[in-house]
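EI: anyone free to look at a 826-residue chain?
SC: sure, send it
EI:
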Amino acid sequence: MGKIAKRVGILTAIFFLAVGIYFIMAQNTVKKTGTVYTAMEEATIPVVYIDLFDPVSNRLPGYLQEMGQSAARESLTVLPKDRKLEIRIAGYGERVLSVQYEIRSMDLKQLVERTQVTGQTSESAEMTVELPIQNLLTRGTEYLLDLTVQTEQHEAIHYYTRLLWPSENYAEQMAVFAKDFSMKTLDREQAKSLVTYLETNHTEDNSSLGEVTIRSSFSQLTFAGLKMKLEGDMQVCMKELDGIMGQVQVQYQLTRDAEDGSTEAYEVTDYYTLKWNTQRIYLMDFKRTTTQVFSGARELYSAKRILLGVGADDCVDVQRSLNSRHLAYVFNQDLWSYDQSNAKAVKIFSFRSEQDTGGRSTYDQHDVEILSVEDNGNVNFLVYGYMNRGNHEGYMGISLYHYNQLSDAIEERFFVPVDSSYEFLKQDINRLAYLSSSDMLYLMLDHAIYGIDLKSNEYMVVADALKEGSYSISEDKKSIAWQEGQDQYGAKAIHVFNLEDGNKREILGEDGCYLQTLGFLRGDYAYGLAHPDDLWTIHGRAAELPMYALEIVDANLEVETRYEKPGCYLSEVIVEDARIHMKRLVKTAVDGQYSYLDEDTIVCNTAAVQEGKEGIGWYASETRRKLYFVQLDDEIRSSKAVKIAVPGRITYGGSDTLTLKANQQIQDMQFYAYGQGKLWGSSSDFAKAVEMAYDKMGIVVDANQRILWDRVNRASLKNIREPQSAAYPIVRYLDELTESKDYGDGLLILDARGATLNQMLYFIDKGYPVVAYVASDSYVLLCGYDQYNVTLYNPQSDQLSKMGLNDATEYFKGLKNDFVCGVELN
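SC: here you go
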């Protein structure tokens, strides 16, 4: 009997083993014939370092697509006197086969040099290459360098940086200053020497370590006395060098031994705006962002909170399912979900990798946008920006992912490659990314709104060529409205589109009137009505179209309120929350111009909206100050019971690559405001772009990334000789100027109406007088300034005069700061 039982046991084991092998083979067969699942691939693209001087080593990410000047603001490479540029290629196992480079003008129209680098081979993981830049560059002019590297796995990897051969090179001194400053902030005693650079203001918010500025306290600057340890090296990157102005970025990682014995990790970016002087370097602006790396450790789940840690005020995004059981949150570019019923946390998406020794996976030019959280725990989300690793490594674009909680898998639905920068892309995604209940995804991208049917991955253009001020998006992103046509002051209809139900309707104006979109008010919508004959034109340039009435309609476009006062015109209407603020004008009978009357406000009877984001909270820690957390509904009984997981697989099998193309492109010239290391906004109004950059000690550039205005790069005094002849390149176009325009002669004429006198001094410093209108048909030239006065030249009387800066500021403000200026295009 024993032998029989033994044989039965052996046969049974063989049977179950065979069954197991069958199912494994069957599963593998399904994977091969159906959807292919895989873990996210590790990074494969080499990193290029441009060793300018100690400590600067500009780090360039590799692109598998041509980006043109879109990637230009990532770094600035300053050439040495001999123009010999040394680069390091960190291959991380990738063998480099060839290296070539191309230098073009920033508008890409002029090819300056194309060179194949020869005699540069290496079998090691890292190689050094010298680029023999020819003597074909104009000093002080920025160019675009496109370095192309061929490896065994990749035919062509592009690395981009702006190239500058300056007349005076202050970059090294500025970079040394920045790194030394950042290093000293880690030691309280050494940091005492930095106090003279601070502009500490008692009104500054010193409650959080997430954001620190030049106006913060000394304690803020030194991480509140926390014993921080530097991990690895500080990465110092040159961002700007415009004459005596320089901007330097310093990035580094810190760790700290917490009170509970755990180790906390932080990612820090210090951004410096500096001004060179023969005596010293002046710190014009300083901005630090510190964000803790959320480890997901069980001890961070306690009471009714998921403790995230230190970060800026906009560092967290949280969404809940309708039944509130599941929630998803993004912190420091990582996406997590949490099931409140069974205390399960899932790290759904992150580019971070423990296997990455070169830091490629932590490159920060990307983000995650949560679209929806379903009642079953599924999450739909976007990953947009530079793809650090995975199936689209080296591309700039947008990926839509679906996380399936039951199958423990992530499925990519589509990928949209784009050739714009991450900053531009982030600006668009923040404006509109909405997923309807019928599986229609709506995205804003480059002045157009697209609708993508997720059932078929087909797309439609909802609206395109959207100009600033000609469209509105509701706060909940469910509704959009836009004016018909590209004439901002000539729309006869407004289209209103409900993204949730796909219903599109039109608002038609009264006979002979034009319409202007004003904005949404928590379910209602406001627009203005104006007569074509009321267009306010000053010195040949349209100022605005004052409205004779304003209407507020409900969701069915039924008029709820009409605001109209006889003889009054409405101007500068601002819609925010449940209020509409406006200025009222009256038209003068003599010349048909307008004058200011007073201001008024409409308060709408709509439901109150909770301040702040639901589900996000913070508390003041004695050691780390403001700490952010995700608020839960139920108390976690035991942190040890929390289950931590990651998706087991990612699938790309059902993904499509979509190329989104609009029918029309916006024609207006666009201006972009940069400061403190980020894009603050864009506008077709030059004065508005300057205003956005001004408080950030920033710059304004055009679409070709050429600097048009710089707050810092200006001497303390300037006088232009023979102002009339110096102004001729500008004044010859005054009679035909209707907007900012490049007339093709190397000088960009800018309509700067609305900018301040102080902001106009930049152009005088560059050698071009500024036209300042003083009457309907006359102007003076601003042709000089010093610490106290501005110099004026009157072409009619051929006389020079001086006016105090304060008096002149108020004088021209009363004349609406009607300036026209010019800047030379390199």
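EI: The two ends are 98 Å apart (CA to CA).
SC: 👍
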